[in-house]
Design a protein that fits this description.
- There is one protein chain.
- The chain is mainly beta.
- The chain has one domain (4-32, 59-143): Pnp Oxidase, Chain A (Roll), CATH 2.30.110.
- Helix content is 7%, strand content 49%.
- The chain contains one helix and ten strands.
- Strands 1, 2, 3, 6, 7, 8, 9 and 10 form an eight-stranded antiparallel sheet that branches. A two-stranded antiparallel sheet has the order 4-5.
- 11% of the residues are buried.
């Protein structure tokens, strides 16, 4: 049985966008859901329906980072905004204490659907955070 010493912490991770490692402060991975279809044959004597698996749906990947002088995310979003989204594969790896991948999420055919700039305030001194929301068509999870 696994103990608390076996748990992996959530602060050591890498994000690879189309093969290039990019730094992010926070990653919210997509939820996966299988649609349930209810089915009943006309000749069934049962009054209840059978439940069978339907389409798999994924929520969007959310990436947050401090605003930096890097046009890569803005350019990627701009392409999608112009109706020609460049689809990229994204890999998110959570690392163990030796900084090696422990669990890997492979997201396929991803493209940006929402960009949020930072909230600005003259009262504070927090880092300006930008957020990119990304649609994905498929997610596989591997444990190394």
């Amino acid at each position: 049985m696994a103990g608390s010493d076996d748990l992996i912490r959530n602060f050591q991770f890498t994000v690879s966008l189309g093969g290039e490692i990019t730094a992010f402060q926070e990653v919210i991975l997509p939820e996966s859901e299988i649609e349930v279809l209810e089915y009943r044959n006309g000749s069934d004597v049962y009054s209840s329906t059978r439940k069978i698996p339907g389409l798999v749906k994924y929520s969007n990947l959310i990436l947050k980072r401090g605003l930096i002088k890097s046009p890569e995310l803005h350019g990627w979003f701009k392409q999608a905004k112009q109706g020609i989204p460049e689809r990229k594969d994204i890999t998110v790896s959570i690392l163990n204490e030796e900084h090696e991948p422990f669990v890997i999420w492979k997201l396929r055919n991803c493209w940006p659907v929402k960009y949020s700039g930072p909230t600005l305030s003259a009262k504070g001194n927090e880092v300006a955070i930008e957020t990119l929301e990304i649609a994905t068509e498929d997610v596989d999870v591997e444990t190394v």
